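queue> pop job 88
queue> type: inverse folding (structure -> sequence)
queue> payload:
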C-alpha cells in the first residue's frame, strides 16, 4: 500500500489514510489494553536506543507497515511512558481519548491560528476555551491564550510586566535603564530565571528570597526587599508567586503578596502551572489561594486537564498589555477584520497550532463534572498513599501540600538511604519516581495524577517502597501501638 511510485506528487488517498489510520489506532488501542504490563521506562542505555533508531536518510519510499513496525518495536519500548499509570515522576499527567483524536484532527486540518483571518473558527474556539479555563480558575482574564507551556507563558507575562515598567526598552534596549528586578522565592521554577536571561534582565537581578515555613514566599520580607532595592536604584519589574511549587506543591500566599505588589506598584505574575486547575476539585478549592489578584497567570492543561503535551494557558487582566509588548505587524500580515482576535500579537509566535481543539473536545467529552470526579480520584489516591506511608515509622513526609504530590525521605538515615530506595524502585522499570531537595534533604517525589492510575497501582507502589526500604534500612521497628500493648504485659 505504498503510494503509487508512478505518481509521486500526491498525498495518500483517503482509502490509504483510512487503512493506515486504522492500523495505527489499532496499535494504540493494544498499547492501552496492555499498559499495565508495559515497563514505564527502558532499561536500554542511550547508545543502544540511538543505534536502534539511527538510519540512512530514506531516499526511497518506505512501506508504512514497516514504519509502524519500527515505531512500535524501536521507539515505543524505549520511551519513558508519561501516560503510564505507574509514572509518578516530575508531574504525573495524562493524555486522554478525546484529546488524542483532537490532535490528529488538528493536524489533518493543518490550521494556523495566527490571525483571525487565517483561522476564524479556530480562533473562536481558542477564545471560548480559554474563557472556560479562566472561569475554572476564577480569574478575571481580559486576554487569554494557549501557549506551548508555562515556561514560555511566564516569559511572555514578564515581557508584558517589563514593558509596563520600562516601555522604552522596546525601542532602545536596556542600556540607559535602571536595572530591572524580578522577585520570587527560592522554590520558584527555573523558567523565571530563563525569562530573566532572555529578557536581558539578567540572573543577578532575579531576587530569590528564602522560602519560610511550608515553602512559602514571605510577604513582609518581600516588601522590605523591594523597598530597599528601589532606594538603591533598581526598578522592580515583577513579583512571581507560585501556586504549587515544583519540588513540594507549596502555595504562596497570593493575596498577601498581591497587597505588597499594590503598595509598591509592581506587577504580580502567578505561576500556577501545576496548582492552578486542581481548584476544579471542590475538596481542595477552599484551601488553594485565590488567583484573582494576579496581573498575569499561567496554568498548564497539559499537567492537570488530560491533554497531551504541549498545552499551557496564559492569562492577563490588563487589556492590551501583552499586545503592547509583542504587536509588530508587517504589511503582509495586515488585515481589516473588526471584532476579531489576532493571536500573533500576544507572543513571539507567528504560526500557531490549533491547540484549543484538544481542550475543547476533552472538556466537552468529560464535562466539568467528569473532570472534577477524575481530579478527586487522584486526590483520594494521594491520601491513600499518605496514610499508608504514615503507618510506617521509617518514612518522613517532608511536605504538606493539599495537591497530590508527596515528598518523602527515610527519617532516621541520611540522604543516601533515601536515594538508594529511589534507585531500587526505579531499577525495576515498573514504576518511575523522581527526586528533589527540600529543606536541605534529599527527598523522593511521588506525583499522582495520571488518568489510568488506580488504588491497586498505589498499593503496589506502597509495596515496592516498603520492600526497597526493607532492603536498604531494614524492617521497621514495631509500631508505637504494638509497643504499648507489649509493655502492658508484665515482664516476668
Ligand atoms: C511544570 C512547571 C513549570 C514549567 O512548565 P512547562 O509547561 O514545562 O514549561 C513552571 N512552573 C511550575 C511551578 C511548574 O510546576
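queue> result:
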Amino acid at each position: 500500500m505504498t503510494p503509487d511510485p508512478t505518481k509521486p506528487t500526491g498525498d495518500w488517498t483517503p482509502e490509504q489514510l483510512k487503512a493506515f489510520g486504522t492500523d495505527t489506532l489499532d496499535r494504540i488501542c493494544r498499547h492501552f489494553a496492555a499498559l499495565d504490563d508495559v515497563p514505564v521506562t527502558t532499561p536500554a542505555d542511550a547508545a543502544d536506543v540511538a543505534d536502534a533508531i539511527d538510519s540512512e536518510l530514506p531516499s526511497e519510499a518506505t512501506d508504512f507497515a514497516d514504519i509502524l513496525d519500527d515505531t512500535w518495536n524501536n521507539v515505543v519500548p524505549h520511551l519513558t511512558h508519561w501516560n503510564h499509570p505507574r509514572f509518578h515522576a516530575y508531574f504525573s499527567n495524562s493524555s486522554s481519548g478525546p484529546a488524542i483524536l483532537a490532535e490528529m484532527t488538528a493536524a489533518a486540518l493543518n490550521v494556523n491560528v495566527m490571525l483571525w483571518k487565517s483561522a476564524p473558527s479556530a480562533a473562536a474556539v481558542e477564545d471560548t476555551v480559554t474563557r472556560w479555563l479562566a472561569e475554572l480558575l476564577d480569574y478575571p482574564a481580559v486576554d487569554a491564550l494557549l501557549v506551548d507551556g508555562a515556561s514560555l507563558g511566564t516569559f511572555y507575562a514578564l515581557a508584558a510586566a517589563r514593558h509596563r515598567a520600562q516601555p522604552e526598552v522596546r525601542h532602545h534596549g536596556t542600556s540607559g535603564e535602571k536595572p530591572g528586578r524580578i522577585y520570587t522565592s527560592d522554590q520558584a521554577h527555573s523558567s523565571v530565571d530563563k525569562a530573566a536571561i532572555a529578557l536581558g534582565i539578567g540572573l543577578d537581578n532575579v531576587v530569590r528570597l528564602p522560602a519560610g515555613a511550608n515553602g512559602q514566599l514571605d510577604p513582609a520580607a518581600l516588601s522590605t526587599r523591594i523597598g530597599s532595592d528601589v532606594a538603591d536604584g533598581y526598578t522592580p519589574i515583577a513579583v512571581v508567586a507560585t501556586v504549587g511549587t515544583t519540588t513540594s506543591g507549596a502555595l504562596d500566599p497570593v493575596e498577601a503578596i498581591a497587597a505588597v505588589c499594590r503598595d509598591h506598584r509592581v506587577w504580580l505574575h502567578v505561576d500556577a502551572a501545576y496548582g492552578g486547575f486542581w481548584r476544579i476539585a471542590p475538596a481542595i478549592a477552599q484551601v488553594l489561594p485565590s488567583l484573582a489578584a494576579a496581573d498575569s497567570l499561567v496554568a498548564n492543561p497539559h499537567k492537570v486537564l488530560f491533554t497531551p503535551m504541549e498545552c499551557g494557558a496564559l492569562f492577563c487582566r490588563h487589556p492590551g498589555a501583552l499586545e503592547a509588548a509583542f504587536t509588530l505587524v508587517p504589511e503582509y500580515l495586515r488585515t481589516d477584520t473588526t471584532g476579531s482576535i489576532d493571536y500573533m500579537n500576544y507572543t513571539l509566535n507567528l504560526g500557531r497550532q490549533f491547540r484549543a481543539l484538544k481542550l475543547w473536545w476533552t472538556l466537552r467529552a468529560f464535562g466539568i463534572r467528569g473532570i472534577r470526579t477524575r481530579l478527586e480520584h487522584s486526590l483520594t489516591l494521594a491520601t491513600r498513599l499518605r496514610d499508608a506511608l504514615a503507618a510506617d515509622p521509617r518514612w518522613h513526609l517532608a511536605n504538606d501540600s493539599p495537591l497530590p504530590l508527596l515528598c518523602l525521605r527515610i527519617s532516621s538515615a541520611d540522604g543516601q538511604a533515601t536515594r538508594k530506595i529511589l534507585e531500587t524502585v526505579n531499577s525495576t522499570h515498573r514504576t518511575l519516581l523522581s527526586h528533589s531537595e527540600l529543606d536541605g534533604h534529599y527527598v523522593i517525589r511521588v506525583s499522582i495524577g495520571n488518568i489510568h492510575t488506580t488504588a491497586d497501582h498505589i498499593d503496589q507502589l506502597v509495596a515496592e517502597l516498603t520492600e526497597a526500604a526493607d532492603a536498604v534500612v531494614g524492617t521497621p521497628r514495631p509500631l508505637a501501638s504494638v509497643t504499648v500493648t507489649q509493655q502492658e504485659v508484665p515482664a516476668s
